[in-house]
Automatic annotation (TrEMBL):
<dbReference type="InterPro" id="IPR001387">
    <property type="entry name" value="Cro/C1-type_HTH"/>
</dbReference>
<dbReference type="GO" id="GO:0003677">
    <property type="term" value="F:DNA binding"/>
</dbReference>
<dbReference type="InterPro" id="IPR010982">
    <property type="entry name" value="Lambda_DNA-bd_dom_sf"/>
</dbReference>
<dbReference type="Pfam" id="PF01381">
    <property type="entry name" value="HTH_3"/>
</dbReference>
<feature type="domain" description="HTH cro/C1-type">
    <location>
        <begin position="30"/>
        <end position="83"/>
    </location>
</feature>
<protein>
    <submittedName>
        <fullName>Helix-turn-helix transcriptional regulator</fullName>
    </submittedName>
</protein>
Length: 248
């Protein structure tokens, strides 16, 4: 319905992440690497063939790495086992043939960390979203108070703090060109990144109106939340306004 998704092309992980990982200052990258792998400065110093004091100066920005150490740092941080899990999730999302996105929450706004081509294409087709998904930019929820119901609930219920297992959301929107009403189901799952930072991984499916109506009746509303004890979390009165539901 939203056009053909681009073909998946396998790419070396180093070519996918070079622009993001190496854009960080070396000290920040090294500190994040140690925190992610629970490695002390002394162990990192042994890996790079330098002193612990040298590592300390790198991480505080008091010293830049020599050309030789920079080569060793790049090799160390580019090893697959040493990359943040979130980088792999970004690659999965960016190159997925499905409607998929990855969000973060900082500075009072929700940011689009990654999105599949099909998700970007879909956002431009719907009246309630366009142009909502721009990778590297905030979602702009304040400009669309009627939209992004599930994302708002995820924030309210602590989803960006890992307090929820997942949120399911049903919503609908009109196609800009034809006015056709399309129904969707989103599943939003918290993902823990490095340095205790949380992300939301979202997938979207197009559903039929009969499925939408059935889920609304089962959930007693448009949103279903569960915690890790498999208990449903009630976060709004049962019922709600079925006609007013727009994007997650």
């Amino acid at each position: 319905m939203f056009g053909q998704s681009r073909d998946f092309v396998a790419r070396p992980m180093s070519t996918i992440f070079m622009g993001e990982s190496w854009a960080m200052k070396w000290g920040e990258a090294l500190r994040a690497f140690r925190a992610r792998n629970n490695i002390k400065q002394e162990a990192a110093a042994d890996m790079l063939g330098v002193s612990q004091a040298y590592i300390s100066r790198l991480e505080t920005g008091a010293q830049s790495p020599s050309a030789d150490v920079e080569i060793k740092l790049q090799a160390l941080l580019s090893e697959p086992a040493h990359r943040p899990v979130c980088e792999y999730i970004k690659a999965l999302v960016s190159h997925s043939p499905y409607i998929m996105f990855l969000l973060s929450h900082s500075g009072g706004d929700v940011w689009v960390e990654a999105a599949s081509q099909k998700a970007l294409h879909m956002a431009g087709k719907l009246d309630a979203m366009a142009p909502a998904l721009v990778v590297g930019e905030p979602l702009g929820m304040d400009n669309r108070p009627e939209s992004f119901h599930g994302i708002r609930k995820m924030i309210e219920m602590g989803g960006f703090d890992g307090q929820l297992a997942f949120i399911d959301v049903i919503w609908h929107a009109n196609l800009i060109e034809t006015g056709e009403l399309v129904y969707f189901r989103n599943t939003l799952v918290p993902v823990r990144g490095e340095q205790a930072r949380w992300y939301i991984h979202g997938t979207t499916r197009v559903i039929k109106q009969e499925q939408y109506d059935r889920l609304w009746n089962e959930w007693e509303g448009p949103v279903l939340c569960y915690d890790f004890e498999k208990k449903r979390v009630r976060q709004e009165p049962a019922g709600g306004n079925r006609e007013a539901q727009t994007p997650a």
